[in-house]
Amino acid sequence: MELRQCQLLRSMATHYLKEVRGQAEACLLTTGYSPEVQDTVERMAKIPLPLLAKYQLINLSELMRQNCTSGDRKAELSALHRAMSILQKYGCNLANPKRPKYWRTVKHNNPIFRSTVDAIKGGRAALHLYGYTIQRPDGLSFPDDVTDPDLEKVAAVTVEVMAFCAELELFIKETHEHPEFLERIISGPQQEVPELARQDLPPPAPAPAPRPAQRPRTAPTSATPAAPTDPQRMSCTVCGDNPSIRCLPCGSLFCENCDEIFHHHPERTDHIREKLQPDNCKICGTSPVSVQCPTCARRLCLPCDRLYHSHPDRRDHRRIQTGLATPPRALRIPEPRVALEIPCKFSAPSGPEVSPQPVSIAEWRCKTCTVINTGSSVLCSVCERPRLAHPQPVDEAPTPPALPVPGTPENQWRCQQCTFINAARDAACEMCTLPRSGDANPQPPAPVPPVAPVTPVAPVTPVAPVAPVAPWQNSMRKEGLKLIQHIRDGEQKGVSPEEVYAALCVSRGSDVSPCDWLDSELPHLLDEICAMAASVQPQGELQDPADQGRDVHLSRAEAKQSWVAAGGDKEKAVWILLRNRHAKVRELQELGFADAAVCEEALWQSGGELEDALTLLQCALLEPIHQRVWTEQPPAVIDLQNPDKQLLCRRLLALHDLSSWGRSELALSLLLEAEGRYTLEDVLKVVRVGPLQDRDFIRRMLAIECRICTESFPRVKMEPMISCECSMCHDCFKQNFTIIIKDKHIRDMVCPMCEEPDINDSERLDMYFAFLDTQLRDILEADVYELFHRKLTEHTLMKDPNFRWCTHCSSGFFYDDNELKATCPHCNDSFCYKCRKPWEPQHTGISCEKFQLWKKENDPEYQNQGLAGYLRDKSITCPSCKFQYELSKGGCMHFTCDRCRYQFCSGCNNPFYKTTCPDAKCLIKNALHSHHPRDCLFYIRDWPAERLQGLLRMNNVEFNTEPPHGAVAGECGVIVQRADQAVDTPCGVEAGEGQAGLCRIHYNEYLVSLINDHSADPASLFDNDELLVACRRYHIDLERAEAEDDQAYHARLLEKLMQDVPLGDKVPRKN
């Protein structure tokens, strides 16, 4: 039961792992690297599964086991963590859509790579999985035929590296939730996986067979087993093919086809399967295993086997090829040859003849040791026998000594391998370095001693003596290596091998390197060669009589080519230089350039390059054509008086980019009809875009009237307005907006014909200014456009809720403090930002209402002003920008703010509409109007004072009727602005009796302000006609019920009006 629960938990964890892995790979392929990828891999690292079950592409268990061998675990884990972090960055760079410039290579000389990834075992194997599979002399790289990395594989490997890096960090910090998974790996392979997890892992590989005491030299037959293997591991359970998938619940191995068929059954669809790790070489870790050595228990690929078993102590190991289509054959590298009297013996494989492995044309198999060599090599890379040499017979008897060759002196011997005649004192062949196989000149046979009994002696391993090498051969080798080093240094500095050789020939015996000599001495030498060549007058065939006495200009490039060709010989370089120059001059003359001086100049400018000199000469010939082609010609004139209309159509079609012959004819006919009213450019612009069949439409497009100057212009010369369908000519458009920007407010920049858009609609106005900006950029002058931008910026800043207008100097500034006292930064005067009254010390610590009450009771000046001061306090405030005007509300109720051009009613603060009213039921529509509430001064200011006083008495509101003490008797003292004088002066109108020293207009304004402050509804005093008008204004149903008398009808309408239509919400009222 517990086992079943454990399997269920493991199945759930595996499914969750697959989901999280897919999310991480998809996110990595999309973004390259992001915090979401890191969060996903951290969740993947915390899944409670062993490493072999969690990571499928990288054998991280083996990686940890190889790099955690010493006692300092913390340092080893830290180094492994750093290496995985660098591998993570490599993967993220490859998966990123914007890969680095040099993503194709990883350099070994990189200090970060060398100290992290290359410092751990198995680090390069992860790079192979990324795609760095080509080994270069200085690092790893992608194959040349690969243009882009395999992003899906890179993402899968990178996600595993990132998850393991996160899991390793948790383990180092001792915060891992399941540290036992990693502890078992580090402590030993036998403790790596718990008993339950072992059921899901492949069975261990069989232990290598012990090395036999004696091994026969013949190759094994086909019946000999290649290596002890587990058949369940090495074959599919169903078909016997190579397995690639392991089923955990079934405990069996399957190939991909059998797995798909077997687990298609409904009862086996939920089985957990995992891919098997590939059996790779134990040295490089990337190539598949091709050879198995039972002696040293290693499974290697062919290149690694060839290198590993070339050691003298491992040459006698017999290996078995694995994974081949043909029966396995034993590989054996023969013992190293030594210069002894006992010759080296190579034996061909005995036993049944096996068909050799197919070898490509570029390779060949040695007939002695069966090692595959490259096609360019003449000798075998292992046994060094020639390519066509036959295998020597297997014979333990000593090879007979080489017989003397007829005609060969006794102090010489001939090599049996390459037939080279060597000196008698040489123990090895001077040509092929093979040891001497026997005595070429045998001495007379000595008498045979009596045979003694044979005593067994322990075998002694022969020691190979060092073959003597001739001193001159050693010297040649050193010089060759030195020359190769100089050539390599020159290649790094961009110097060709020929230049290096020539420099060595000149600077022989000097300690200066050839590259340094070329930098310091070669320019002077080239100048000397040029001077010598210029001073030499060649004779005979090298110079024509006509060229004698003419100076020769030679370039350094030509001198350098000649010097390199001469191998550093200065005199020979001069001769080659002159010969090449005259040959090039003659070749140019044969091409038609007879002037030798001009040819010499062209060759000198081109550095001796014949093709470049020919280009220079041809450019001189083509210069008149270039001048004629690129010189701006006057535009072709279309002469309408020309009787050949076909000619005019062809010119229009060819010169003015018309799309068809029909449009060319249409343009010509319009030009003929216009009789000079239209220009050719205007007609062509309209014809290119207009419909070909509708000539009336094209004519209308050519004659559009400007509503400002009343002149006609083509459509292309009209500037359309953005907010409406109006348009004006270019000059009127520019002049109109220039005047508005310089002399008016920015809100006046609306259409001059229809005054669109509505300036009270702030959202629509902002969008209008955004599009108008792009239209004015190319039309207005630079200074005017800059002024427009400055005004637009100020208009935008005024919308900020912290923007305040100063009541003293009318400047604006930002004030975001909670204190009532605001100080203007321009005039340094203070005022209350809430009630906008000049600041007084008595306002400190009290509200605006209490301060106003105190001032009314204690300020003598305020008391002397009486109701005039009260009306001044009830001055006009713009509801848009909050700017305050110390004016009375009498006169015209349509008020326009000077600061923001907002149009509103001074009595109820409702906006005025010029064009489009937002109320769909409005009867006025496009006329200038505003929707006033019934208690607005606009409606009740004409009531008699007694009626207004009666409304106040009904609502128990007190009001004044007597003038204040000290006021001018009989005159109204309210401050008003005279329209003719543009100054603020007292009203001066005669004050009536019982009107508190005010005129009738201002006394009614005072009474209305009291009505608004106390929210007294004037509808209670409406008569029948006033009630019907108010109901029609607010769209109240006037239908009368049957048998309803006038009093009941009036009461019902009044109740409905007062309930359905509230008082104005924007009317200034007392808080």
Automatic annotation (TrEMBL):
Record-stated family: Belongs to the RBR family.
Protein's UniProt name: RBR-type E3 ubiquitin transferase
InterPro entries: BRcat_RBR_RNF31-like (IPR047540), IBR_dom (IPR002867), PUB-like_dom_sf (IPR036339), PUB_domain (IPR018997), Rcat_RBR_RNF31-like (IPR047542), RNF31-like (IPR026254), RNF31-UBA (IPR032065), RNF31_C (IPR041031)
Origin species: Conger conger
SMART domains the UniProt entry points to: IBR, RING, ZnF_RBZ
Annotated ranges, domain B box-type: 276-322
GO cellular component terms, A-Z: LUBAC complex
Biased composition (Low complexity): 215-231
GO molecular function, one term: K48-linked polyubiquitin modification-dependent protein binding
Start-end of Pro residues biased regions: 201-213
A GO biological process held by the record: protein linear polyubiquitination
Sequence segments annotated as region (Disordered): 196-233
